[in-house]
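Record now logged underneath.
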Amino acid sequence: MKYQISHKTGYNYSASASLSQNELFLRPRLTQSQSVVDCQLSIEPEPQYHHYRTDYFGNKADVFLIQNPHDELAVTAVSIVETTNPVLPDPSVTLPWEEVARRLKNPSRPADLEACQFIFASPLVTVSPDTLSYAIPSFSPNVPVLVGAMDLMRRIFTEFTYDKSASTVDTMVDQVLLNRKGVCQDFAHLAISCLRSLGLAARYVSGYLETLPPPGKPKMIGADASHAWVSVYIPDSGWVDFDPTNNQMANERYITLAWGRDYGDVAPVKGVVMGGGTHRLSVTVDVAQQNN
């Protein structure tokens, strides 16, 4: 599939801001199932400093600084990507989850060693007895690791309610587990916490999912949004992405921006501003299929 993604972020300040410094993760990644044809980024007002870098996890980041007084800030990223369906291992023949945890505890292979950094708690993903208790029903003794992860995905989708008003970007996993409500970020964090509580490696993936309109209805402009899902490490196969918000494995409709330990590593736009009073934030995302 070929997609054009337009991601617009706007800030309107109640008073002039004297300085704004931001980091953006809005450039799609190159993966085994995704290639990047083009990516154009515009920032208004024009920054006095704009630096492009690759972060620790291999994500593409833009860092910029505006030093002139401004009442608004507008960031627009327009990307064209081509995607294919990822090659997935047969869940039933993946290693038992206990064997995976043992390999990650004492890694002897480079890929296992690299995955180890994703088995620990991180700033927004705690690992607790409560998440371990929630994970255990999906991971009986000797259950293949991907079978367990898929069952965990199904249970989160079934037992939790999608509710935009139930959380914020700072909501922690224990609160999501208690309320049984949240958004894609929350469900990804919960799944990651469950997997890490078992000694498995899991990372947070940010990106987009093409939304399909009801049959016979045109797609509404602005109907899309940023999305988040989970990637679990399968020894000898690599990383496998799954989406607890929609109870499905990632396919060609998923477009990857960045990955890290949790949302804090890969927030699409984050930064600091001096002055500005209060602000109003607006975000619009469009994911459109391209015919050529």
About this structure: The chain has two domains: 2-84+267-289, 91-262. Residues 204 and 260 are 5 Å apart (CA to CA). The first helix runs from residue 97 to 105. The chain is about 20% helix and 40% strand.
